[in-house]
Amino acid sequence: xxxxxxxxxxxxxxxxxxxxxxxxxxxxVVLLRVMSWFSAKLAxxxxxxxxxxxxxxxxADAATEELIAVIGVAINRYRSGMR
Length: 83
Known about the structure:
Helix content: over 70%
Structural class: mainly alpha
């Protein structure tokens, strides 16, 4: 009989703990959404800004080639033991 009572009590404590954590997380999500809404009301133009830079294919290819070269140098330097 004592084992059943202990299991029931432990399940009860587990449910209370999980309920508290779930409630806190829901409260956190609600507060973050309210803060987001409030900040959008304070500065409406800044949240919907579109980047003005549009990469051309030639610029993208040059950037990709440079990135590949930098990564290759970093790999070679790491493998040679010179950090």
